[in-house]
Amino acid sequence: MWGSSEHGAPNIAGSGLVRRLRIWAASLLKRRTVMAPIDLSDPLGGALRDTELLLAFAAQCHRKIRPEKVNALSVAVENVNAARCNGSAVSSHESVAFWVAYDELAIDMAPLSAHSIRASIQLLAPGDPTLKTLPPLFIPFVFGYGIEILFSLLDKVVKAFTQHEQLMHQKS
């Protein structure tokens, strides 16, 4: 099916499977755009957009964010947005209130960040730039648990072999 190399080993380099995998990998690389965790052109505006994403994710994934934290952040966002819409400078009081409230939300959301959520959305739904609903993030967890189960089984196999060797060594 795959052909053979000069040593009799299967040669999968020319197979259709490898060719399809290369095409698939190339298409993933073409679609992938590099997203910076911070919008360097407008860090405050990027953080304001991130608050909506983080709060939506927290609500959909049943994170237990205290209402007073959400309220403080919402008020700070409204004040900063009002100042920006009026064309006036954001006051230091408004800026401090926003960043402190944003930091508290970020701490509650850790280890997730708006950047990691966007990256997960891009991996799970490439080609769809809009965020209509957050995709279920259980897929990475299922994959992680699958790897954990695999390593657990491998650990049991290794222990079984070592125990067998120890028993054979004790008998002799």
Features:
172 residues, mainly alpha, disordered N terminus
Task: Describe the 3D structure.
The protein folds into 3 domains: 1-31; 43-124; 137-172. The radius of gyration is 26 Å and the shape is elongated. Mean pLDDT is 75; it is low at 1-5. It contains 6 helices and no strands. The protein is mostly helical and 172 residues long. Helix 2 runs parallel beside helix 4. Helices cover 67% and strands 0% of the residues.
Q: Compute the average pLDDT.
A: 75
Which structural category fits the helices and strands? mainly alpha
Strand content: under 5%
Overall tally of domains: 3
The biggest beta sheet is recorded as: none
The total count of helices amounts to 6
Radius of gyration: 26 Å
Helix amount: 55-70%
Number of strands: 0
Distance between the terminal alpha carbons, to the nearest Å? Answer: 48 Å
Enumerate the spans where pLDDT stays under 50 for 5 or more consecutive residues: 1-5
Helix-strand sequence: HHHHHH
The dominant shape is: elongated
Please outline the helices and strands:
Layout: H1 16-31, H2 43-60, H3 67-85, H4 92-109, H5 114-124, H6 138-171
Helix pairs in contact: 2-4, 3-4
In short:
The chain has 172 residues and is mostly helical.
